[in-house]
Specification:
Radius of gyration: 23 Å
CATH topology of the largest domain: FAD/NAD(P)-binding domain
Low-confidence stretches: 500-505
CATH class of the largest domain: Alpha Beta
Number of domains: 2
Strand order of the largest sheet: 3-2-1-7-22
CATH architecture of the largest domain: 3-Layer(bba) Sandwich
Number of strands: 22
Shape: globular
Oligomer: single chain
Strand content: 15-25%
Largest sheet: 5 strands, parallel
Number of helices: 17
Length: about 500
């Protein structure tokens, strides 16, 4: 079976490795000149670091290098992925600087025709047939920049608007007035190095998020709070099991006090009240969809006025003020703005599929209808990798790849289409309600990272033993605990590897 994988980030590379080890012929298409996905040199911005520590942010069978710092830089993560390619001999499968412009499903039996060409060029496309397609193009790869009123005149006067990932050189900001739009990880990360060179640095935040200190109270590494099963269990999952029933039943008062204490400690430690940066709502309210790690130096620069945060506000228009580029905020404030850097989210879409296929992938609200965040219910010969963004995104993507390999080898008894469709709709409705719609079109499972991994591995009968999972309640999840999952899956499915259920529609028996 010939498989095309689109994307060479964590999801695409782990898919290639698992699928090749499972006996499939794999080609990985990547339009960037290097591997890495969001960590590629083409997308890295100054100040980019991991949000996880190096012990929890890696693939199961290759830890981060021992000499890396606790929170690796973007460049170090990209080098790690290059070493992953070398370690598992993936280079022959890679087609870098190659863009997939179209993928057409011929029919259920024939599979896919994939059209590709050198990235950024006008060369004629080349067409190739594949039996199965894995979409691993990343849910954080296509930046969403607002359509600012007045942008044309603003740029004619010399102003620039960039997404964070388009800013690669601080010299573009030296001595200039900079506006950073957003308050998520990328916005705060990039604001710090910008403030070292810019004439002024303003952060415009429509909504404040909670920021977690890397060490709560200056002593306890945050990984012991949020990167454990206990930390995950503090938030109510769609189905409660075991000790979760206590936490969200008789122990609910204790659970709430634990979450409130995290918010209180962060407020004191980061001096949020003095800085006027305490988010609206409780820590639990905002952490339902996202929690950002504090960027080193950010709040210190706010305190000494090198960074000015405009909270609960947004840009109403870009303009030219006395011949210079500027921006007017919703409260009427006009700020000089030679450079506007946007950390305003991403567009989750699959641009190389036609409108008909995209419609079959989505519900009426544009959310991806993916069983287990992997399998489209109504499109055959297609799976997704990395559409389960979590606190442990590399591990989540890798376990999705294992699920796909087992599925293609005939190792997963699936429910009927109707049952899978109802399952996905129920989950999407729950996700929309609990996150107030902030679930990246159904692709963001934060904070339920381990719940998702459990469900994927339980389908295969390959989850970790009870003792290993109990350890994860109190200790940060170590991806190395899952390094035996792929070989176990291969052994388990070897007897049925020739059944190839991918040639039939999802749910067929």
């Amino acid at each position: 079976m010939r498989i095309a994988v689109v994307g060479a980030g964590f999801a695409g590379l782990s898919s290639a490795k698992v699928l090749r080890q499972s006996g499939f012929e794999v080609t990985v298409f990547e339009k960037a000149p290097d591997v890495g996905g969001v960590w590629s040199s083409t997308r890295r911005y100054p100040g980019l670091h991991t949000q996880n520590d190096k012990g929890t942010y890696h693939l199961s069978d290759l830890p981060m290098p021992a000499d890396y710092p606790q929170w690796p830089t973007g460049e170090q993560v990209q080098r790690y992925l290059e070493s992953y390619v070398e370690r598992f001999g993936l280079a022959p499968a890679l087609r870098l600087s190659t863009e997939v412009v179209s993928a057409r499903l011929v029919d259920d039996e024939t599979g896919w025709l994939v059209a590709s060409r050198p990235a950024g060029g006008d060369d004629p496309v080349s067409w190739e047939r594949y039996d199965h397609l894995v979409v691993a193009n990343g849910i954080f790869s296509d930046p969403l920049v607002p359509s600012f009123a007045g942008r044309a005149d603003f740029e004619a006067a010399g102003g620039r608007v960039l997404a964070c990932g388009e800013l690669h050189d601080l010299e573009a900001a030296r001595g200039r007035n900079v506006l950073v739009v957003g308050y998520g990880k990328s916005s705060c990360d990039v604001a710090v190095p910008l403030s070292d060179v810019a004439a002024s640095t303003h952060v415009v935040a429509r909504q404040l998020l909670w920021k977690m200190p890397r060490k709560l109270g200056g002593a306890v590494n945050y990984k012991y709070l949020l990167l454990t099963r206990m930390g995950e269990a503090l938030f109510r999952y769609i189905n409660l099991k075991g000790f979760e029933r206590f936490l969200h039943g008789p122990g609910d008062g204790l659970r709430r006090r634990m979450l409130d204490s995290v918010g209180s400690v962060a407020t004191r430690q980061l001096r949020l009240r003095e800085l006027g940066l305490v988010p609206h709502g409780t820590f639990e309210d905002i952490a339902r969809s996202t929690v950002s790690l504090t960027t080193d130096g950010f709040f210190e620069r706010v305190a000494d006025s090198r960074i000015d945060v405009h909270r609960d506000c947004q840009i109403s228009e870009l303009l030219v003020d006395d011949g210079r580029p500027a921006a007017r905020l919703a409260d009427g404030t006009v700020l000089p703005a030679d450079l506007v850097v946007c950390g305003t989210g991403f567009r989750q879409h699959v641009p190389f599929l036609d409108d008909d296929l995209r419609a079959r992938l989505e519900d009426g609200a544009g959310n991806f209808m993916l069983y287990r965040q992997i399998l489209p219910v109504d499109v055959p010969r297609l799976t997704f990798a990395g559409y389960n963004s979590s606190f442990f995104s590399p591990l989540s993507a890798e376990m999705a790849a294992v699920w796909t390999a087992a599925y293609l080898r005939g190792g997963i008894p699936l429910p009927s289409r109707d049952r899978m469709r109802e399952h996905v709709r129920t989950r999407l409705a729950w996700m929309a309600e609990r996150t107030d719609g902030r679930h990246a079109r159904g692709t963001n499972v934060i904070p339920f990272s381990m719940h998702n991994i459990d469900e994927v591995l339980d389908d295969l009968g390959l989850n970790l033993g009870l003792l290993a999972r109990v350890r994860q309640w109190l200790l940060p999840v170590d991806p190395r605990a899952y390094r035996s999952v792929t070989p176990r899956m291969i052994t388990q499915t070897t007897a049925t590897a020739t059944r190839r259920p991918a040639v039939r529609s999802p749910g067929a028996s």
